[in-house]
Amino acid sequence: MIGCRFFPKIKRLTTVAFSSGPEKLPSKFVIEDLNLYHKKNIQKYEKKADQCTPQFLERMKKRYSLKAQERIDFSSLAEQYPKVPAIVEYTSKELKIPPKHIMSALQEAPELADIAPAKWATCFGHLTQYGFAKQGILKMVTDYPGLLLFEEKELEDSMYNWMRIQFGESRLLPLLVNNPMFLALGEQDIDDRIPPLREYLEGRRSRLAKLLMNSPQVMFKKWEDVKIIMDYLVEPMRIPKSQIARSGVFRYNLFHLRCRFLFLYKTGVYIITKYNADPLETPKHPQLTDIVDTHEQKFVYKIAGLSLIEYEVFKEMMYAHEIYDDRDFLKPKDTYGLVNPSLSVNDQIPVSARMQKKRPKPEPPIVDSF
Questions:
Q1: Predicted local distance difference test score (pLDDT) of residue 230
Q2: Mind telling me which Gene3D superfamilies this protein's record contains (predicted)?
């Protein structure tokens, strides 16, 4: 295998591998299938095509697909949704959005084709006043088509509710562009969820904004489920609050978090931080985002350093035996202050205290009277 560069003028292609192996694709097929180079470059490509590996050719086909395949059938879409021509005409002329972007959005979210252009005008006109770019608003309505049905007063109230948190424009606008469903939350929903989350993150708005960006589900889950994970991150995991904000831990349930934490703990990869440890000292365990957000294979091979079958057996063991008390896994020195939220109130009492509680009181000695 040798490496070289060719066609640096075409998007600066990275190093291409050549091979003398038996699997080759004919140059004619390559040129007809890609069909994207200029005439002067096709001659160069034809000379090199017989030496390219199939893997490279497959990457090229994915990167540069035929324009005909990318083209959207406007006539069939217009027949199915009569409002499409008016929407495309209005957005291209009045909103200055390229028609291909509108057609791509209509193909991704067909619900948009049933909404009148007047609703588009209300939504785009109002949100641009708050600093949203038109391409950002188009992404918002594509991800959440119901946003176009908001009245102007509803949009104003929703924006006011989020501006009260004082994230700042640089944080609030990207947050809402990526999570437009947040605008559907009422004032009471925001007031019930934001203050406890902010207190949990030690009052830092920057951390709160990161948390909402990485784990938007935290605004829609039941508070009991969120509180369970919050408590578990504090004890027994003892995760710094900065790592919590940078991860997507609230996208998952407690079982996912417990399985991965206890698996790393039993393998010796995760060392629980001591209470009297220096806060500036680097924790002796992987980052929280590496623990919960990585793919299962990467988590097992790269982080835990074990095989996938071992992790599968560990999960099956937790399923089969219904192990809910982490004190069955942790060392005694790491169970200080541990309260397992999945247990009943009586079971949350430490084992020694439960035994003392169930032990019968000694009866007073019997004194014989003469």
A1: 94
A2: Transcription termination factor 3, mitochondrial (1.25.70.10)
